Amino acid sequence: MSHKIFTTYSDELALLPNLWVKFWLAVLAALLVFCPYVLSQYQLSILNEMSIAVIGAVGLNLLIGFTGQISLGHAAFLAIGAYSSALLTGHFQLPFVLSLPLSGIIAAILGMIVGIPALRLKGLYLALGTLAFGFIVEYVLFHWDVTKGDLGMSVQHIQLGSYTIKTQAQYFYVLTALSALCVLCAKNIVRSKIGRSFKAIRDRDIAAEAMGIPLAKYKIMAFGLSSFYAGLAGCLFAHYQRWIVPGSFDISVSIAFIAMIVLGGMGTILGSVLGAVFITGIPHFIVYVTDSLKDTYPSLTGLIVDFKLGIFSLIVVLALLFEPYGLVGIYKRVKTYWTTWPFRY
């Protein structure tokens, strides 16, 4: 797989390296603007779910893909963000513009606290430690009177001043804009000194420490950033769904987010986006296929419904077997092919 050779640091660190990137980003932005005019309410709801998933996946990739710190407690930080915003906007009557960053900050503080004991853990032990934290959060949400346990909590619509976000189209513009902003911020983080320190720790933490990189500082920072993104995603999820229960943030959610970054491409922001879109879209695609075949092949439709989770898992496994670098690997190969065409190399 070929890589572009840069001759200056400014070219290498450029956010938009050439006119083609700027052009296609402009085309994508134009398409997104017109999506609510051509898509149904159901299709817009899928895109809204994807936007929320992108934010959570980007945050987890900053921790696992860029820093090499395995976490199975990502869903817990989504739950913290969701319930924090529900309490801030419901009990304390704070506006959404304040509850959104505060939810992320609360999750980030707890994430950094979790990151302190995690400094002495690596690999499987770190994964088990974060998994234990996830179970603790889930237990608290089930048994704390304030969160109302499995009865759930109602959450208000997003309010921006006197304007209330209610329709799928309105949510689409808000969630897409916030998702794009989070992706842009993450892209700048990984291009900065912080991102380079994350990569050095991931590749070889002993060598990074020998070069003067404080491991404790940047590992805790990685946990904080990842938790902040998860808190934002949880806050948006709560206001979008308008009803949250502890069961919405179990271990399966953490596994789904890990699948997003692995399938999309570890250590890449683009991989987080592609993986979130792919993993979120697969269940809806299976539903679409089932509905299309229910009249012609009713028995086959029932079989697909029974094995829906198995089909979803099989697609992920096959994708990883045939493309270990994820969707980003496919993108880079296609890009290299068109760049070098008609030559093979």
From TrEMBL:
Keywords: Cell membrane, Membrane, Transmembrane, Transmembrane helix
A GO CC annotation given for this chain: plasma membrane
Membrane topology according to the record: Multi-pass membrane protein
Transmembrane regions: 20-39, 51-72, 92-116, 123-144, 171-190, 220-240, 246-263, 270-289, 309-331
Keyword Cell membrane assigned: yes
A GO molecular function held by the record: branched-chain amino acid transmembrane transporter activity
Domain of life: Bacteria
Cellular compartments annotated: Cell membrane
Protein name (database record): Branched-chain amino acid ABC transporter permease
Native source organism of the sequence: Desulfomonile tiedjei
Lineage: Bacteria, Pseudomonadati, Thermodesulfobacteriota, Desulfomonilia, Desulfomonilales
